[in-house]
Amino acid sequence: MKRFFVVALVVSALLYLTAESTLDRPPDDGVVRIRWATDPNPARNLQVEIFGKLQVLLKPADVTDWAALLGPLRSGRGPVAARLRESLDANAVASALPGEAGARAGMLKAINELLSRREAFGGAELAGLDLSYDARLLLAKGPGELTNVEVAALNRRILEAAFPGAIRPARRIEASVESGAREKLVVQCATGTGPDVIDVYGMAHMNTLVEAGILVDVTPYAAKMGFGPENTYPAIRGNLMIDGRQYRFPCNVWANCVIYNREIFDDHGLAHPKPGWTYDDFLRIGKRIVGSPGTSGRRHLAVANFSPVWMYNDLLIGLGGRYFTPDGLLSRLDSAAAVGAMQRYHDLMHVHKVIPTPAEASAMSSQGGWGSGAINWFSNGQAAMILIGRWYLCQLPNYPALRGKLSVVRLPRLAGRPSAGVCDTRAGGVNITSPNRQAALKFLQYLATPEYGQVIVNDGDALPPNPNLARTGRDLVNAVAPEPAFHQPFVDALGPARPLDFSPFIDAGQVERWVSEMISKVENRLISSPEAMRALAAEINQRVRRNLGRRPDLQRRFEKVTGRKWTAGWRHEDVARK
User: Fold this and answer.
1) Cβ 367 vs Cβ 232: under 8 Å
2) How many CB atoms sit inside 10 A of residue 565's CB?
3) How far apart are CA 481 and CA 513, in angstroms?
4) Which fold has domain 257-413+500-562?
5) Which CATH class is domain 182-255+423-492?
6) Looking at residue 528, what is its pLDDT?
7) Angle, nearest 10°, between helix axes 508-523 and 202-211?
8) Alpha helix (H) ranges present in 351-483?
9) Nearest to 165 by CA among 56, 58, 68, 61
10) In the beta sheet, which residues pair with residue 253?
11) Domain boundaries, the chain
12) Which pTM was predicted?
């Protein structure tokens, strides 16, 4: 029997070696390739392209010997230097020699423009150069087969070979977009097949991934690499962390406003909403729109309600409500603010008819010409208003008929309070099992750069992570919405906005699902708003108590936040009083 197992082992090894010898593996070109799990927005392809190019374009720190670079450039000695000299201003080269930082930066900018060009250097310039292995692999492809990132990488390698000792060899890192179902992430990461960078949607999603041990604690890296919480908006800094430790950095940041179609308002003879408008104004306008046809004879929806949960949460924050007490031990979803938000949501649908019922929405989606959902109803000119973030602009190029017809105003004020709603972020985190952790961290560092932020500005995908790129509406103008007034409300809305609060004593994703289920019951008139919120709070509180009874780690957290030892018979009133 022992001999049999030895023979079987030897045979298996021979079969493995034979199979390995037949595999056509790509050559190891030294490129670190990371995978980014994100949404299928086409703009992501441009974002990863810019990241890849930034790894190979010249920065001042990449030049290790300015004299060795500038000397040949000044004299034109060597074919590559001569080619560069043709593209550079002679005065710029001369003024860079004494060490003027501004002149050197200008010269590097001109060189980088050349590095981005296909066939920047021809065969004559390459003759005699000792090119790196990855450069020779790129040359073998031919110019027409190279990506824009590979073009810049090849030209950088040519520079390194032409000016030996003057330019630090670049570490090539390239990223690719990988869109897929979020529910697969836990399994993929646990088996070592997960992506390197993961888009984390909201606090609930982050809590789930941290609880599962999937995200890297990036706190020590962020402080050194410039993507700490202080590098983004104050309103969402706490939403990047759990227990004071950072696990993600924003890809974009959003707070909802009301985008409205001026043409529909004019058709119904309505004045456009002004800053500081109230909930009563909102109702008056909505009832007027749904109450009768416009002068064109067309009927319109008042509000395209694309996310019931988001609308409820905006109402909750607008009324000063929250999900939990500050210690996270008791649900506040049975508070007057929470019940009032749900009652207003119910009344918008069933009393004032400002938003369609589920049955009405289903009927409209099945009719020709209405589109397949609320965002399409607004985009097709069927609805007058939509409560949404600036990221709606990503949709606008698909609806050219809307160009020049849209304006924005902040959410209406509720109960005499200032305008306020929810804010949040789609943010990148690093997979703890990634074999490319350092490269993935550089991608998070990239998210804080002006280069990445400008892409977000240009494509309208909410607000850029870097607040310096969104100080006013003028900073955010782009080809789709060239008026600063369109963007300014989104900037203003972020100041008073607040992320949803969650409790460490209960799974945040479960709470979100229960809230969504209760909203659905209220929408379908299966339960009243006060009953719904009392039942929801009771269910959450029961789960908190059950979790505390089962988990010693939560009991220790209880003792930390309350200053008293956990006992099975604890009452929140006693804890709060202490």
Assistant:
1) no
2) 9
3) 35
4) D-Maltodextrin-Binding Protein; domain 2 (3.40.190)
5) alpha beta
6) 98
7) 140
8) 358-366, 374-379, 437-447, 450-459
9) 68
10) 425, 463
11) 60-167, 182-255+423-492, 257-413+500-562
12) 0.88
